[in-house]
Amino acid sequence: MGASPALPPPPPPNLKVEKEEAATASSKAVVAAAAAHRPISTAHEVRGIYAHEDEAFEYLRKGWPKFETKAECMAFVRSHCRANPGSNPERPHMTQMITTLVNWEQVEKYLLGARREYDERWPARPAAAKIPDSLSENLWVSEDDAAASLVDGEIRKRLELPMHRRLTPFSVESTLRYLFEHMRCGIYVMLRRNKVAMFVPFVNENFQNNWGDRLRVEDDLETRTYYERKRSEVGGRVEHALASRSSWWANGNIMCNEHSSKGEPAEKSQLWGDRFVASLRDVLDAACSERVLPDCEFFVNKRDYPQLKYHVFEDQQQEPQPVEPYGFLVDADDRDPEADATLPRPHRSTSLAPVVSFYCSDRFSDIPWPPSEDWEAAIGTIMPPSFDHEIRDDGEIELDAEPRDLFTDAKFRQFDCAWDDKVETAFFRGTATGGGVTVLDNQRLAIASLSHEWKTAAARANGPAGLRERRAARAGREKLLDAALTGWNRRDKKLGAKPMTYIRPHDFLFEAGRDNFVPIFQQSRYKYLIYVEGHCAACRYGFMMRLGSVILKVESRCVADKIWFFPLLRPFVDHIPVRADLSDLADKIRWCRANDAKCQKIARNAKTLWDTYVSKRGLLDYVQLVVSRVAERFEYPRAPWLFDDDARTTAFEPLLPPKLANRDPASPCRDEGLCDRCADDLLREREAAEKENQRAAARLRRRDQRAPERPDLKRKAAAAGADHPEDSAGAATTDDAALRQRMMKARRNK
């Protein structure tokens, strides 16, 4: 056989390629190290409040489960409630979907402690430079869409207030204290590396207000007498009001003074309902999954009233300042700036992290946020509403709330009704929510009263209203208005300077109750649907936009009158406006009847508006917009191991501190020299050593001052100095440290 051909010589080593490959391997190692992190130290004690990868419960590691049918959702909830009922490690009776912290000790351990751990794992990255790129396809920042820019303008206007202008970690801590101590509850949110790192509900079980001694109750009655009279007049269950009014709280104009409807004390009750929390967490998870969200922190308010109110001075010489958000509790009108009440001094912070709320106002800095109902409508699936439950005597689980299947495709098809098949009547159903208790200060009571009045007038033989109604009936026309209340809402209410009171059904000529109930899908059979608020804006507006009917929007009289997409609305384009006192309601209904084609177009415009801006794409874009605008205001301390070039890298690349193992701490950790962290460590070590030397000298001085100066020790010390003239010479020009050393030596020799 012939000789084998000679192999070509190996190519010379390409040092550049090898260096790049090593860098790539190092980068992969960094990513792997980030993925192989240790879980948050307290993750096994709680549920639903940390990043999904830290969850102890398997079903939460992929996000909150969703279901196609109500039966599937209920089966899941019952199964979970039987297997894993408890949600709070120190309160085994609490059964919320997501752990709710109940005292400051828990806040320090599970919120602030975990916050520090996440800050070490995922240091906040500078975001402002990256935001324009991440919003490039966001429909709310389109230069060609003037309506969408109004929504962005509302967000910016609030964040430009002095309290939000420059945000730091201290702003977050100040807001946490304010919400916990002054407002009683809230939800803290931390976003890191395009994921929800923390979503933590908290409520103060030991809440004490600063207005209880000033709260006015009807006829200045004692609490017990007030509730005895209330029950004798309106009936209902026994109310277990807390004895001390300093323990009461409020949700908008509705007074709250029971930890439990069964009279259980705080330590035995649920303290704060878990409604909406799964949907609120889910919308953030979805936004992180489908959009780019920068690092930031903020708070979510799921109550019916905003929480950060500010006062604007008329002379413009002073900047706007935070004031008491619930001024009505001290007899102030929250719509009147001159009546603003000051905040307690501990909460007059100059910098507060933003709070996002379902219902907002121009007098508050709360940023509008999509309510859970809008998110459920956008995704069309069913989510668990609550884990609150009771176990009956027969062992079966009775749920506090059933899942809502209103927005599934199958259910929504029941709302389809052709325009020509709809009834030409203005329709409203709802409960008597609102801060007022008369037709003059409660718009829902007013519209129910008006409907009853028109109905009664039509039945009378004489009178212009009756004649019009009879003529319409002879012509085959429906009645103008069908408005009724499905419940009286017996809660205690407080409005402005009026005392706390309640609705008395016997004051009205009409009835309220379940007899007036009309299934929601039947309401789409009316051409005109009336939107009238209670004690705040109503989240049903988005749902009404989809029904193919004209919305008659009654002008608001309440404080919290804004919802996140309201800046988009235009009168006579997507709705028909009605005066707050309802004085033009009849004329507006007749106009609608006379302009049927225009009304059909208005109904289509409302539905198009929902499809474009309120559906899933628009809603997630809005969440991204709010988070981005908030992140623009944050100034986080730069991660101490980063160089300037590192700070300009992508905001979502995992950057870990350099490894210190197998490296001389005194040597440079990079070619450029010591990084910021190592330089700071070295400086701190030197400062610590200097302080220790100072403390040692101080201890010696104190000991010498306490011990009597014995002559024999002094003589021996002097003799020692004679034996060592160089020491005594030095002592003449220095402090007494050398003398003390010789005295100590003399003591030892003795």
From TrEMBL:
Pro residues bias: where?
1-14
Q: Where is this region: Disordered?
A: 1-24, 696-736
Residues in Glycosyl transferase CAP10 domain copies: 292-635
Q: What is the lineage of its organism?
A: Eukaryota, Sar, Stramenopiles, Ochrophyta, Pelagophyceae
What is the name listed in the Swiss-Prot or TrEMBL entry for this protein? Answer: Glycosyl transferase CAP10 domain-containing protein
Residue ranges under compositional bias (Basic and acidic residues)? Answer: 705-715
Pfam families reported for this sequence: Glyco_transf_90 (PF05686)
